[in-house]
Amino acid sequence: MTDGDTVDVLRISGLTLDLGGARILGGVDLALQPGRIHGLAGESGSGKTMTGLATLGLLPPGARTGGRIELEGTDLLTLTPRQLAVLRGRSVSMVFQDPSTSLHPMLSIGHQLTDHLRHHLKLNRKAAKERAVDLLTQVRIPNPREALGRYPHQFSGGMRQRIAIAIALACEPKVLIADEPTTALDVTVQAGVLRLLRGLCDDLGLAVLLVTHDLGVMSAIADEVSVMRHGLVVETGPRGRVLTEPQHEYTRQLLDALPGRSTV
Amino acid sequence: MTPDPTAPLLSVDDLVVQYHRPGAPPTRAVAGVSLQVRAGEVVGLVGESGCGKSTLARAVCGLTALAEGRITYDGTPVRPLRVRRRELALTGIQMVFQDPYGSLNPRRRVGSQIADGIRTAAGRGESAAELTTPEDLLTRVGLPASAAERYPQEFSGGQRQRIAIARALGARPRLLVGDEPISALDASAQLQVATLMRSLAVESGAGLLFISHDLSVVRLIADRIAVMYLGRIVETGPTAEVWADPRHPYTRALLAAVPKPDGAGVLPAELPGDVPDPADPPSGCRFHPRCPQAFDGCDREEPQLIAGGVACRLYAA
Ligand SMILES: Nc1ncnc2c1ncn2[C@@H]1O[C@H](COP(=O)(O)OP(=O)(O)OP(=O)(O)O)[C@@H](O)[C@H]1O
Ligand SMILES: Nc1ncnc2c1ncn2[C@@H]1O[C@H](COP(=O)(O)OP(=O)(O)OP(=O)(O)O)[C@@H](O)[C@H]1O
Ligand SMILES: [Mg+2]
Ligand SMILES: [Mg+2]
Predict the structure, then answer these.
(1) In testing the pocket of ligand 2, which one of B15, B18, B21, B27 has its CB within 8 Å of the most ligand atoms?
(2) pTM of this structure
(3) Would you call B263 and A183 a contact, using CB atoms and an 8 Å cutoff?
(4) Residue B106 phi/psi, 5° resolution?
(5) What is the ipTM of this complex?
């Protein structure tokens, strides 16, 4: 889609966030390009999820923000809740760290997937159903046609996570924020999901912000890597460089903590 | 107080757990599993997403009805409990659930939820001197003591997992079942919390059944590992042995798919074929349609777990 020169589809600059009297984000800078995966690692509690939620306008009540979050030039922080709702799911979507956030417990999976498709893409019932089956197949849900009639609690934790991924991808967003999308998956199913994401980037020019604490996953799929600590991005760079020649002390600590780390 | 050291603390024998849905055949999520956990032992349970690990864990904690087989904890059969109060002896089993959001009460402060755990231990007659405070437990899992005053939703994913662990540890379990308990933690926090859980088992003689898809963490803390595929255990053995010499083709595929943090950008290999539906398992060996080494007869004969610890016809005597 792009020819190497960097057109940012999403640019976060100087993002600050205050919540309940505490500073959560202290000026975060991140940029996403079409067709590329930007990995975000960092300490637990460093503000990765909050950065994602800020982009979707889904921060908890009482949150105060500063800085800019530009989606193709529009500052999302200046939009009204209604304008944001139009973008959510359609242009920017998110796989939440807690999959139960993305799934309604009382509605069947088919209902949730097809509603979304019919609303945003104006598909008819039959076309929406076919697309839903196709999406569930892509995330490796067994017997997808039958799965449409089931409710979230009837799936395993990892299956719910994959269904949430299917919903987030349903409307072919330009930007996907995936918050720990493979934490509940075993490594072979994880490999399938990573290949799916890589394929969507390569074929459709999807831009992904991939939050993961798993540096193996990061190494497998991220083009760029950023590392957060205490509400700040402390290091950003190409994957190979950050994982083999970390510049920041904290990145080095993270790499050293890996059990059985394969030294380079 | 001192049980027969040779008797396992937890014994699961030929367990079958089914889910029923109207108009569909029952799903045998756990389809004949036997597993033991001894006092002071850490058993790691790994396997494909949807293979029945959480179902097994819930059955062990008395939260699901058994279709067949038996579970005994400390010599007592574990039965599913409809009644609100769990039998006192069974409070010695604590579970850390896969979903830390659902298992913490959003309306109560973290400290008072951890205090519930401690009260459970007191109720079993643990001496007061051995009991800790919520603040102490929070610091041990790497959170500030002041976290006790806050509510669960004020915490990040990894922080909530640590709160759930603190609450379970507060109950001084004799058997701790952790279902992906540290999946959201960064590498350094994983190391810290996994070590804490392991030392609990080793020092206080508790058993730990540790479910995780993160093989590097399992390798670090488990004495023994059990590998599950579609409702059955396909391989089991001392962790170091299984790691060094995986025998079941599924175990091999699993170990080969662990992505390496070498910065090289190599996508790990996927298992070929479709993820099977436990409501309609393949005939014979459940893994045969996806097995690179399947041979004549694998689609007909279901291999049993042999003494050597592997259920695969490649190793049949
Ligand atoms: N509702 C809230 N009120 C006050 N503070 C909050 C709230 N939600 C989160 N926080 C705090 O904001 C900080 C950042 O949280 P965030 O969820 O972004 O972390 P994270 O980097 O995603 O961590 P993890 O890897 O553990 O998921 C944390 O220190 C957390 O305690
Ligand atoms: N309440 C339910 N009703 C019907 N089927 C269910 C129910 N709960 C789980 N299942 C099915 O049982 C199987 C095993 O689920 P389980 O949650 O035990 O898997 P798991 O090994 O823990 O997976 P994961 O690693 O993804 O958490 C899955 O196929 C799931 O769809
Ligand atoms: Mg988070
Ligand atoms: Mg599970």
Answers:
(1) B27
(2) 0.92
(3) no
(4) -70, -15
(5) 0.89
